[in-house]
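Design a sequence for this backbone.
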């Protein structure tokens, strides 16, 4: 009898096919909610089932392994298909209608400071070219133009002479004469040529201030454009240059030449 029961149990165990779908469903329910314990039916303690108990235990162990394996598979599937968290970029606040906006700074060009000359004997640069209204004179290799410097004022005057020569000069004498209109007094002279090349004198003669440049012997004035200036104080007010004038006498390789003229205001 015992052998017959054992044979039937073996046949039943061999014929058993676990329902994997039902087991997976139970695992999913177990993952989703609290585990449900089922009360196991008590096994009979009769000697009839003594031998079959071991085989039943092995069958139960095989079912548990199957359930655990299925559970791991389902857990892997759930972990793989779960969406990954999305990281959003920090929001940048947009400007509101009342927000202040940066304004461009306008740069105001600044011109040179005005030149003020009053009774100074320092050289004042002459204009780069004589005014179209300047008194001009030409003779041989010489060309000249006289003008009143625009920086002159009601207390002080500078008169400019531009001299241009097309050949070297071995002799040069320049005279500038200024009428004594009241308070005319020498404050200085200057020239673009080296000051050491000339003997410069200022003297009063017959109510006229005479400024004279004489080229020293053995020296030469090169070809080109040269400038000479006389400076003096005078009585307060706008001074007329109508009684002023200049004369230039020169000698070069091409012979002698002379030019003369007056000083015309340039403003």
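Sequence:
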């Amino acid at each position: 009898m015992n052998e017959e029961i054992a044979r039937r149990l073996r046949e039943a165990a061999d014929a058993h096919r676990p329902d994997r779908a039902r087991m997976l469903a139970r695992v999913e329910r177990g993952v989703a909610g609290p585990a449900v314990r089922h009360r196991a039916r008590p096994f009979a303690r009769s000697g009839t089932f003594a031998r079959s108990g071991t085989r039943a235990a092995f069958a139960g162990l095989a079912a548990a392994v199957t359930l655990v394996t299925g559970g791991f598979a389902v857990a892997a599937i759930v972990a793989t298909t779960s969406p990954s968290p999305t990281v959003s970029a920090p929001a940048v606040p947009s400007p509101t209608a009342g927000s202040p906006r940066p304004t461009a700074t306008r740069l105001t060009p600044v011109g040179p400071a005005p030149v003020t000359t009053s009774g100074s004997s320092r050289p004042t640069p002459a204009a780069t070219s004589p005014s179209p209204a300047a008194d001009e004179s030409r003779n041989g290799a010489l060309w000249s133009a006289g003008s009143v410097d625009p920086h002159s004022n009601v207390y002080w005057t500078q008169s400019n002479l531009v001299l241009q020569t097309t050949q070297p000069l071995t002799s040069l004498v320049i005279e500038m004469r200024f009428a004594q209109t009241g308070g005319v007094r020498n404050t200085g002279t200057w020239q673009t040529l080296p000051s050491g090349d000339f003997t410069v004198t200022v003297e009063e003669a017959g109510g006229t201030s005479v400024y004279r440049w004489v080229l020293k012997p053995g020296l030469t004035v090169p070809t080109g454009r040269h400038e000479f200036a006389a400076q003096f104080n005078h009585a307060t007010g706008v001074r007329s240059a109508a009684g002023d004038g200049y004369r230039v006498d020169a000698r070069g390789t091409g012979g002698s030449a002379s030019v003369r003229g007056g000083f015309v205001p340039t403003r």
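DSSP finds three helices and eleven strands in the chain.
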